[in-house]
Amino acid sequence: SSYDYEHKQWEGGKTYRFMTYSDGNGALNSEDVTFVSAYDDNNTTWGLEIEDYVAGAKDLLVGSTNGEVTTNSELTNHTTVNLGLNHALSRVQFVFFTNIATGCFLKIQDFSVDAKTSGDLVVKNSTSSAARSIAWTPKTNGSYHFTDPEAISGSTTPDLTDYDNTGYVLLPSTINKVVYEAYVIPQSNADLKVSITIQTLGSDGSVLSTIPFENISLNLPNHDSWLPGNIYSYQAELGTSSHDIHFSTIVYNWVDDSYGD
């Protein structure tokens, strides 16, 4: 991505403030993005604001320099600007696996999560701290739709610590699990629900059963909100005779994908 900066060269003895973003390696509409040069009378806090951002398939990165950048009068002390970046969204995964006998298939259909799908973002930086603050105001009610239903077949129970988390991935049937994910607006998950339909198919493709599941809770006792920069991995086992779905959950940091509690 690129930006248009009105000053084309450094000026000696000046102080500069930088903020940046990347929306899936692209840019947003300029009218939705505002750089705020100062939030307080002391001129110590500045930031970036994005209005009406719609989440879903893109990773939104935001960043800035660690504090201000000041040049000396001879312009000999700066040639590049180092920008630190943070994930502004939450990343939510759903991992479905099965140990049903080979020859049967489970098909995932009508999979959606009712939640806030848009919001306003304020990212602030300060002369007194190297840490950026990321604050969302969730706005529009909607649904995140996972539109890549596929059959998954089973032969062995998978190792859940070794799955692909690159996005909308159907894993090989020998691993017998499927991973869906989306980038979502950080928000409370206390009242969020999942709806999904599971079909059991015979080896010839005939439909053996169709079971709809609605209002499955995504509330986490120790994590009552989706936070920026976290990955929330909801995992459930599907079987041919199951009439309920219960998710177990792993929460870990997006920076290094290291597992948390």
Describe the protein.
- It is a single chain.
- This protein is mainly β.
- The protein is built from no helices and 21 strands.
- It has strands at 15-16, 19-23, 33-36, 45-54, 60-64, 69-70, 84-87, 90-97, 105-116, 118-126, 129-138, 141-146, 151-152, 169-170, 177-184, 187-188, 193-201, 207-217, 225-226, 230-237, 248-253.
- The strands form 6 sheets. A 5-stranded mixed β-sheet has the order 14-15-8-20-21, with no helix packed on it.
- Strand 17 and strand 18 (207-217) form a beta hairpin.
Terminal Cα span: 35 Å
Major sheet strand order: 14-15-8-20-21
Strand composition percent? over 45%
Extended strand count: 21
Outline the biggest β-sheet: 5 strands, mixed
Order of helices and strands: EEEEEEEEEEEEEEEEEEEEE
Overall structural class, as computed from helix and strand content, comes to: mainly beta
- What would you call the shape? elongated
Mean pLDDT rating: 78
The helix fraction, in percent, is under 10%
